[in-house]
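Journal club prep — side note

Before the paper discussion, L.F. wants everyone to see what a predicted structure for a comparable chain looks like in token form. Sequence:
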Amino acid sequence: MESAMPLVSLQRGAIVALLFDLDGTLVDSASANARAYAVALGEAGVAIEVAELRAKIGGRNWRQFLPEILEGKQSKASAKAIAERKTQLYPKMAAGVRLNEGLLALARTSRDRFQTALVTTASRQNTMAIVNQTGMDGLFDTIVTGDDVLRHKPDPEAYQLAASRLGIDPIQCIAFEDSLTGIESARAAGMHVVSVRLE
């Protein structure tokens, strides 16, 4: 993890909540996510490599990247239909996601001192599939997904909603993020940000 903020800021009083992104931050689910989209797109007549999909997704919601992929293609399905099919495929592919054990340990050991939230662009169904399969259920005071907001990262709405649900000011939060999109979102909400690299 990289941070431009001194660790002393983690003292009680300065910071009261830790907010975590999911994909690429708490779990390495990018490959499983891209594979599920690749299958759903393939069924709709659009062939695309998993590596190319991973680059296009980059922490964005399907409403942001699927229209770009489908532009100019003779697809049998709409972006929404492809996203819904991907949601059906995802749970089986998500079973083998790799965990960021260090960051999860921080989340678990901080529960008695800080409020916690999960803030992701993923759908609630996909999010809960990961949360339940990886033993993260009960770890967060609130979970904000892509289904809960109108505007997705890099817009600050998701992080603003999480702070509102926790009943605190965004400046009292540290957000852990891996993507530039997520970092921009948390910063725009007025939060401190720790950049995470899941090796």
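L.F.'s comment for the group: The two ends are 10 Å apart (CA to CA). Keep this in mind when we get to the figures.
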